[in-house]
Amino acid sequence: MSKLNKKDKFLDLSDYGRGFGRFLANQLKDTSFTPIHVTLLFGVSGLIAVYCILTNHYILAAFFIVLKSGIDAADGELARLKKTPSYSGRYLDSIFDIFLNFFLLLAIWRVTNSPFWLMLLAFFCIQLQGTLYNYYYVILRNKSIGGDTTSKIFEYKTPKALPVESQKSVNILFKIYTIVYSGFDLIIHVLDSNAYKVKTFPNWFMTILSLYGLGFQLLLIAVMLSIGWINFIIPFLIIYTLLILLLILIRKSYIK
Asked: Could you tell me the residue ranges of all domains in the chain?
C-alpha cells in the first residue's frame, strides 16, 4: 500500500533514500528480518555517525547520516511488503529519530564548542521544522483516497494494537512518543489549527514543504559536515526555521 494515491504524490526532496529503502526491503522480504529490525539498524547507523563526529571523521559521519536515511525508508517498505504495518514500528521509528537528532547535535556542539543553549535551540528548531512537515503530510495522507492512515492527524489516544503487535508494546511506545513529541505538535497546531480542514495540498506546496522533511534536514547536515562547515550547522538550523512562518502564511492565504 502506498502512502498516497497517484494524484496526491509529489516530489519529496526528503525522500531521496526511498530507492535504496525499496531495494533493501526487497532483499529482506523473504527473510526473518522484521521492520523493527530495520528500525534498529538505522539507529545503529545514526549512532555510528555520532561517533564519527566525535572523532572528527566528518566525511564518514556524512556517509552514515545519509545511509541512515536510506535504511529509515526501508522499515516502512518492508512492513508494506510483508503486510505487517504496526503502530509499534511507527512510534519506535519516530522515537529513534528524535533521540538521534539530539545526539547528532550534541556531538556537533561537543566538537565546535558552541554554547549549549544554542545547541538546545537548534534541536528545538529542527524538531519544529520536522513537525510542520509531518503535520501537513499526515493530513494529506489521511485525506488521500487509498492512502496510508497508520499515522493520525491528532495523536491523543492510544491506538488499538494491530494483529502483528502486542497492546503492551503499543501502550509503552505511544506514551514515550507523546512525551517527546506532544509539545512540538501543540505549537504547530496552534500556529495553523485549521490546516486539517483543507481538502488537499497542492503538489508544489508539498515539495517546498519537504525541505523540512527529516531526510532533507539530515542531507543538509551531511553536506555541511563533508565540506568542513560543521561550525555553521547549529546557527544554520536556527535561521532555517524562519521558513516555517512563510509556509504557514502561504497555506493560510492560498490553500483553503
From this structure: 12-254
Residue 158 region, left (φ>0) first, then alpha (ψ -120 to 50), else beta?
Answer: beta
Separation of first and last alpha carbons in the chain: 28
Give the integer Cα–Cα distance in Å for 75 and 16.
Answer: 15
| Contact between 49 and 61 (Cβ < 8 Å) | yes
- Per CATH, is 12-254 categorized as 3.40.50.1820? no
Q: How far apart are CA 18 and CA 142, in angstroms?
A: 21
- pLDDT digits 0-9 by tens, 63-120: 999 999 999 999 989 988 988 888 999 999 999 999 999 999 999 999 998 999 999 9
pTM of the model: 0.92
Q: Which residues of 64-81 are buried (b: 16+ CB within 10 A; e: fewer)?
A: bbbbbbbbbbbbbbbbbb
> What is the rounded CA–CA span in Å between residue 80 and residue 35?
9
